[in-house]
Automatic annotation (TrEMBL):
GO terms for biological process: DNA integration. Residues 110-151 form the Integrase-type domain. Residues 1-106 form the RNase H type-1 domain. Pfam families: Integrase_Zn (PF02022), RNase_H (PF00075). The keyword Zinc-finger applies. Its EC number is 2.7.7.49. The keyword Nucleotidyltransferase applies. This is RNA-directed DNA polymerase. It is an enzyme of class 2 (transferase). Residues 161-218 form the Integrase catalytic domain. The lineage of its organism: Eukaryota, Metazoa, Chordata, Craniata, Vertebrata. GO terms for molecular function: RNA stem-loop binding; RNA-directed DNA polymerase activity; RNA-DNA hybrid ribonuclease activity; zinc ion binding.
Length: 218
């Protein structure tokens, strides 16, 4: 059983467990975690420059993880799964761990944990997470930058508003713009609307730029 320190949080405890496993198991190892934060950190830390942060416990664990990974001679993999979704296969061990640490008292999950879970499914950008879950900009940015998918977009702030969100189907999200074609005379404002999933385009010439004039079919 690993002993926590007083300064530990949920994130540092999850990170501590992975650091311990990578340091103590010298043979090839697969680590399954429901922490998107930890999976993202491990995926990026080998080539990262680690700047000292205010949270000394977190800084200590990041340095230990970086050292452990560079000293490994055998391959490793850190696999992320969605929490509380599976109780068979890869999720069986995660389910057993959840049962061991569960208590009889149900404690509401903190907002940043809910935000992290939501981001692992829908991949909202930092601004969207901050607004939806009422967390700080720093917390939202940290969630997005730790995501292996979103950290490469928009300077680490996640997918922009021009990207089709994960899970959207046909006729669920339309985007519109207006272009000017002077040769059309009075109807020179061409309203162009596109379904972001199917790429179906609806274009109509109008007499002004108000987008309300354009209404794509059902």
């Amino acid at each position: 059983m690993l002993s926590a320190e007083e300064a530990d949080t949920l994130q540092t405890l999850e990170l501590f467990a992975v650091v311990w496993a990578i340091s103590h198991f010298r043979e090839p190892i697969n680590i399954v975690t429901d922490s998107l934060y930890v999976a993202g950190v491990v995926a990026q830390i080998e080539d990262a420059f680690i700047k000292e942060v205010r949270n000394q416990r977190l800084y200590q664990l990041l340095m230990q993880l970086n050292k452990a990974l560079h000293q490994r001679e055998q391959p490793y993999a850190v696999i992320h799964i969605r929490s509380h979704k599976w109780n068979i296969g890869l999720g069986e061990g995660n389910q057993r761990a959840d049962e061991l640490v569960s208590t009889a008292i149900t404690v509401p999950l903190p907002q940043h944990v809910l935000a992290r879970e939501a981001h692992s499914i829908f991949h909202q950008n930092a601004k969207g997470l901050q607004k939806e879950f009422h967390i700080s900009h720093a917390e939202a940015t940290a969630i997005v930058r730790s995501c292996p998918i979103c950290c490469h977009h928009n300077g680490g702030l996640g997918l922009g508003t021009g990207v089709n969100p994960h899970g959207v189907m046909a006729n669920e999200l339309w985007q519109a713009d207006v272009m000017h074609v002077n040769s059309f005379g009075r109807l020179k404002y061409v309203h162009v609307t596109i379904d972001t999933y199917s790429h179906y385009i609806w274009a109509t010439p109008q007499s002004d730029t108000r987008l309300g004039k354009t209404s794509p079919g059902p």
